[in-house]
Amino acid sequence: MANLRYYDDAGLSAAFYDVVSNAYPFRGDVAFYADLVGPAGSSVLELGCGTGRIVIALAERGYGVFGVDLAPAMIQRAALKCERLPPEVGGRIALMQGDMTRIALGRAFDGVIIPFYGYAHLADPTARADALAVVARHLRPGGKAAIHLPAPAMLRQPLGDEELSGPYNAAGDGVRIRVVARSFDEATGRFCQVMDYTLIDPAGTVTRRSREELVYHAVGRDELVAGAETCGLTLSRVLGDFDGSQAGREAIYVFTR
Ligand SMILES: C[S@@+](CC[C@H](N)C(=O)[O-])C[C@H]1O[C@@H](n2cnc3c(N)ncnc32)[C@H](O)[C@@H]1O
């Protein structure tokens, strides 16, 4: 079985994303972004919005949110979820399939966020510099940006449980997700986790399976801060967790334009 790229249309990682993110929630990230951006009514651009976990939560709090994601399988799921929202909430959301290293929306937001490791998917420094330029281009003067990365130490250690099982849908299907292999290359900073995704029917029969590679790249503080400064973004703080701790398994960078 060939390894699929993560969030590929043909795989199960996009379909199972909400199961995984519910099991490993970053407690407090939505409240953190809301506090950062300003009062309800403020505008937020989320780069790498996935299936809309944060887009929807912020819109429910009264923010106007524009979500962009590269993976069609993710943005389509976000769009389906938004269709089911009350009109006053759904009306505050715009979604677009696009690349965070290239988009030009022609407008500025009160806040720009790249949550839950989206920026760590970018493989090389040029792409990461381009994404910082996109952040700066879409931030109003005085606006705030946040980039949530895994702390480099976290990429050298297991990212959580080796196996996760749970319900998938109301029809009684279940999911099983297993980590098959993990590696971290010190020279390149490339972390790779091979995952087996399995869909199981109510009788216990496996109905679909996919093996996929989740790849993250370690991003050094110096690279990030220097790249941000080049684009007119100033570092205001770095947190280790959303509870405000300085040390932790996360690296949450906050910038001001
Ligand atoms: C771990 S998910 C986070 C989803 C969502 N922000 C959340 O917090 O639940 C990372 C997302 O970044 C997206 N992504 C990766 N590279 C991207 C790029 N170049 N442009 C836009 N989105 C990208 C992936 O498709 C994926 O949906």
Task: Write a concise keyword list for the protein shown above.
single chain, 257 residues, alpha/beta, Rossmann fold, N-terminal domain of TfIIb, 2 domains, 7-stranded mixed beta sheet, 5-stranded mixed beta sheet, binds S-adenosylmethionine
Descriptive notes:
26% of the residues lie in helices and 35% in strands. It has 257 residues and is an alpha/beta fold. It has two domains: 165 residues, Vaccinia Virus protein VP39 (Rossmann fold); 64 residues, N-terminal domain of TfIIb, CATH 2.20.25. The strands form two sheets. A seven-stranded mixed beta sheet has the order 4-3-2-5-6-12-11, sandwiched between helices. A five-stranded mixed beta sheet has the order 1-10-9-8-7, covered by helices on one side. α6 crosses α8. The chain is globular and about 55 Å long. Bound molecules: S-adenosylmethionine (SAM). The site of S-adenosylmethionine (SAM) has 21 residues, from α3 and β3. S-adenosylmethionine (SAM) binds next to α3 and β3.
